[in-house]
Task: structure prediction
Amino acid sequence: MTVRKNQATLTADEKRRFVAAVLELKRSGRYDAFVTTHNAFIMGDTDNGERTGHRSPSFLPWHRRFLLEFEQALQSVDASVALPYWDWSTNRTARASLWAPDFLGGTGRSVDGRVMDGPFAASTGNWPLTVRVDNRTYLRRSLGAGGRELPTRAEVESVLAMATYDTAPWNSASDGFRNHLEGWRGANLHNRVHVWVGGQMATGVSPNDPVFWLHHAYIDKLWAEWQRRHPGAGYLPTAGTPNVVDLHDTMKPWSDVTPADMLDHTAHYAFDTD
Ligand code: CU1
Ligand code: CU1
Result:
């Protein structure tokens, strides 16, 4: 059984194996396919206007499926690897071990945001960005440069306390847990972390920064925590909602998965805190 651990507790060997598997996916071209998929679904389905991956109820099940596929790809390289999660409410500075050269590397240099150390620095030659929104081929970050702090535990708690999963109009104007977690209203958890990291993380090609997976693994964990706290509250909407993925609707780009299929993470993995 796959156990997703807090990244702050990983051993040196676990970090090394995670990084090596990520680099192997990059080398083989499989990594960039994930970046392409994410960027294609950042705004919605261009065929019919349906919102799928973001600004919609399916934000959480869409990313759960997306992370599962990435984790399975990692495990095809090294079966011992699981996605770690980054609890940014606790490990909340640019000095955290997450950003050390033996793991993800640190912030970018001031002149152009280029990450200069760690396994994903452009200078290694192992991390050229091919799926991108501009002509810059190097990984960029500006940790905390925007001025706004990472979300606090109290802000996380305030969002976990929300009793309703989502509400009409089922988008970035909605009230409810999903939209406050995604970050278009209120405390702003998920979006704020993308902006705090900066660089590619603040764009549709955010998976170019491997911290994307650790951030979303924690968002996914917060969904699981919310489910445990609100056992009577489920995914909404359940049926008949135009341009929105209902509980039993198929989520593109997949043809075989609905939000209902993604509600129980324990079918696929456990968290170290379960
Ligand atoms: Cu996303
Ligand atoms: Cu995200």
Q: What stands out?
A: The two ends are 13 Å apart (CA to CA). The mean pLDDT is 96.
